[in-house]
Amino acid sequence: MRFIIKHEIKGRLRIHAVQEKMTFQEADTLLYYMHNMKFVTFVKVYERTGDAVINYVGDREQVITALKEFQYENVQAPAGLIENSGRALNAQYQEKLIFKVLMRFGRKLFVPAPIRTLYTTVNALKYIYQGVKSLAKGKMEVAVLDATAIGVSVVRGDLETAASIMFLLGVGELLEEWTHKKSVDDLARSMSLNVERVWLLADGKEVLVPYTDIRVGDKVVVHMGNLIPFDGKVVEGEAMINQVSLTGESLPARKSKDGFVYAGTVVEEGELTIQIEEVGGSSKFEKIVTMIEESEKLKSSLESKAEHLADRLVPYTLLGTGLCYLLTRNVTKALSILMVDFSCALKLAMPISVLSAIREASLYHITVKGGKYLEYVAEADTIVFDKTGTLTKAKPSVVSVISFNGEEPDELLRIAACIEEHFPHSVAKAVVHAAKEKNLEHEEMHSKVEYIVAHGISTTLYEKKTVIGSYHFVFEDEKCTIPEGMEEKFQELPKEHSHLYLAIENKLAAVICIEDPLREEAEAVVNSLRKAGIRKIVMMTGDSERTARAIAERVGVDEYYSEVLPEHKAKFIEEECAKGRKVIMVGDGINDSPALAAADVGIAISDGAEIAREVADITISADNLFEIVTLKLISDSLMKRISSNYRFIVGFNSGLILLGVTGLIQPTASALLHNTSTLVVSVNSMKNLLTE
Fold this sequence. Notes:
seven-stranded mixed β-sheet, alpha+beta, seven-stranded antiparallel β-sheet
């Protein structure tokens, strides 16, 4: 495809696509393509002009080559990503807003006064109807106040004031709707499926294939802890399914043969074989959008308080208007109170602040499932970290395989990878990756595998019982032993590495040494969180006391606990919450899901197990733990903005009422200043928090 360079400085290109018109889909395809280039740091594509701005590092020729090779039809974006990008939504609301402003000024300049009068009167009926409907239900809400203000203005013949009020209310409603929809869609996209490969059942064997290869009618196997990638019918197996993302149910649902399961839900226990009935990403996206829009999880308690306070203030505003008229017998002064109310700004600015904060968090690869969790993060005084894949790097690596049964290390690694590849854990991924790097291919050699959470895996291999997992699981639970004469070799295992034990027929066959390096930023993140107001920082791990102590000392946590099971993590968090502490839990594995659910805020690392991401309230990318600090700063800034909005709304509107009652300003001016201030507060609430 051809592009023209319109402008260029070092590290930045502005290009133009040589084509008649760029569609939304084409713009998003180009955006996705360039975003996936390692040397590109920022991309923005303007579909109206066909232009794109690209910031990059390194050699300019890399960018030029990438653009030369670009073809729309050759880009394979994840299902649903392009269709639900939000670009069309933004364009739609931009056009609505521009049209609304042009129509407002167009009517004033070009439409005759009698027609304007008729239009304003008819339009006012809509607001008056909403107010009457609210009263009919026995509710004194903001709609009543809007209806009264507009109705009185119409009755007095002050149609210009009525038109101004309706215009500003309309713009406010449009901005709120736009921000809400955009925030919900951003959140839904980040919660949508992120599945690359699935286990296809073909000729009685499980084969790992790309997600895009699956067709309607295929059968796929979903193991414990994994996300169900498609809608389908259960043809074999039984499992407990976590459906909270779609139904809001906190308890898992039992699914067995002939039951129906939905894409995006997670297998908590058991295993299912599913016959696929629907493929594609859009259905999942739409279900999540519906769930979010209907869920109260989106609201913070401060947001809810603002709405309730707004409604409670309506009767007092009406009472103040009546008293002012009785005392002064001045309709103009009484209307000054009616034209100004606190509720409009409170109900508009608070939700926009919260939704904008959720949207801003997504810019830092942080997915927040509801506004109340930002509030909890701001209030938190305790944070609990899992170690593996959280404080340590998300991608541990195999350093060596030490044989204890005389077989070649590569053969033992091949066996371990064959078993481990069925389960989503960072250590399991390390084993599978090590085997892949050595080209150790294998067929499915074992019977059904059984995963014991936080312990290990048990199966039958060539009719021999085979287990792989922790020391506790292999030697204490399974009663495996070290081969005779190998005790000294076992004692000399390198202490700087984590160990994964493989045993066959109750005899230790191999120890796989795993390098689990600490994240470079871990210590700095702990210090930053402490400075941000977190008073207690805890690390919990299933690793040995020796490994846990070494990591804890390097990171600088206040407390650490080793060799803990999932239920111990959850119990510790429940005890901390019972003491009145606000607790954040950060984890990435299946074994972390009970603790993530027990905490006030569960934060999952996105490279971890699907069940952890499903249970968690917030998900961050695994690239940098400083995103947790960023989340804390966004949450704190949001609370400051909400408090600032409260003070401004109360102060400014009180001033307007005082000026109106004393006769210093007219009701029309009060209405204009009030609605303008509401709009200014709302627009200001849409700004990014971390740039202030």
